[in-house]
Amino acid sequence: MTRRRRSTVRTLLTGALALGLVTSATAGAYAGTSRVPQSHGTVRTASADADCSGSVSLYGTLTDGRLTYSQIDPSTGNRLKTHIGPDLGFVPRALATLNFNTLLATDASGTLYRIDVKTNNLSLALMSAPTPIGTGWTHDKLVYDGHGHLYGTAGGVLLQYLVSQPKPAGSQHIGQRREIGTGFVLKALASTGDDRLLATTDDGRLLEYRISDAGTWTSSQLAAANWSGFSKLVSPGGGLYYGVTAAGGMYWYQDLNPSDGAGSDIIYHNDDPVDLSGWTQALLSAEAETATCVGRQYSYVLPHSAVSRGELDDPHHDYAAIDIPVPTGTPVYAVTRGTVGHIDGGFGNGITLTDVNGVTYIYGHLDSRGVATGTTVAPGQYLGESGNTGQSTGPHLHFEIRIDGVKHCPQQQLLALYDGATPPAPSSLPTSGCSY
């Protein structure tokens, strides 16, 4: 974890203590280790944030029945604020967010309540006392998909309901009960979008369910193991998943293509949690589809603060490439999605990154390599740290682009990526004129 992130976590935990979300003993566990899912696909550090916008709004209830509201930045995973609201007058058993100001909750007797809330930057309150709108709701889990369908599980049965009003008053607005299937004994349940559910199981699987208009369902296994540590799971859409461990740590993940039914492209942020502890809510629910993420094809290869823009158009001393002067230990990132290889010799601890089109990017003279050969990485993923190994006369990053063995000048690409612009196609880059 970076020094900046340690400082941020301490600040957030201090705020949570003031709000009563954590105890001093819990905060003392800040330095402990939580059991969280380990990636079988892509791992990335906090230094290169996801291209996500919108908001992540999470409602929750504490064990004493008080309501909570938290907001998270979807692009960084940083918690922005948490408010503690009033006692609801009952202890909810299941909770679903219909919209920013409307929640549904059940109690132990099966009564369904509508909760009308108001929140701002400083406080969380109720517009009125929770309104009972139904009975017989013995569900252990409730989630809303943001498109008119409320899902719940009861005794392993997955049920679907149609919600026809933003503030339902009863069965006239929550109806068309449909049994989707049996065997849905799930540890945690969330909705990721229109008739799409995400779930974890006691044996650690991460599963996705898709419900058809006819009420049939299909499932995909996104991960075969290591997700059992999450007692709660929520998603604001955009392929963003947030899991809370029994110890109260919240971790976040981004599925680069949430429509492909595969988990190999999930970005794991285990080294950059939202919070290491403090999420003591008994229930947690996200407002559906409030975040949007755009997959990137390219990413800048260094932290922006590592070197000035003016260094990125310098010629190389010998051939089409560039030597960027940066101190030893500067993080370097994947410029695009591709497969990692290791290269030695004059490059010292070198890394090759080859994309699906056969374009190869070379990172030379690294002090250390942070990814294994054969690993598939995403744009912006941490590859290692710059150094002074191999045939090098000083700390720097050697960067070059090869297509069918031909070297292309990388300067125009680096300048565009530094500026946040779409870079030119690698094949369009010149093969000469960038050396002396």
How would you describe this structure to a colleague?
This protein has 436 residues and is mainly beta. It has 2 domains: 3-293, Tachylectin-2, Chain A (5 Propeller), CATH 2.115.10; 304-428, Glucose Permease (Domain IIA), CATH 2.70.70. Helices cover 7% and strands 41% of the residues. It has helices spanning 3-19, 24-28, 411-418; strands spanning 42-43, 52-54, 56-61, 66-72, 79-87, 94-99, 102-106, 112-119, 124-126, 131-134, 141-144, 149-154, 157-163, 174-181, 188-193, 196-200, 206-211, 217-223, 230-237, 240-245, 250-255, 266-268, 283-286, 291-293, 322-324, 331-333, 338-343, 349-354, 360-369, 376-377, 382-386, 397-403, 406-408. The strands form 7 sheets. Strands 25, 26, 27, 28, 29, 30, 31, 32 and 33 form a 9-stranded antiparallel β-sheet that branches. Strand 28 (349-354) and strand 29 (360-369) form a beta hairpin. The longest helix has 17 residues, at 3-19. It is elongated.
CATH fold title of the largest domain: Tachylectin-2, Chain A
Number of helices: 3
- Tally the structural domains: 2
Q: Cα-atom Rg, whole angstroms?
A: 24 Å
Q: Which spans of ≥5 residues are poorly predicted at pLDDT below 50?
A: 1-34, 40-49
Query: Which descriptor suits the 3D outline?
Result: elongated
Q: Can you identify the CATH class of the largest domain?
A: Mainly Beta
How much strand content do the residues show? 35-45%
Query: How would a crystallographer describe the biggest sheet?
Result: 9 strands, antiparallel
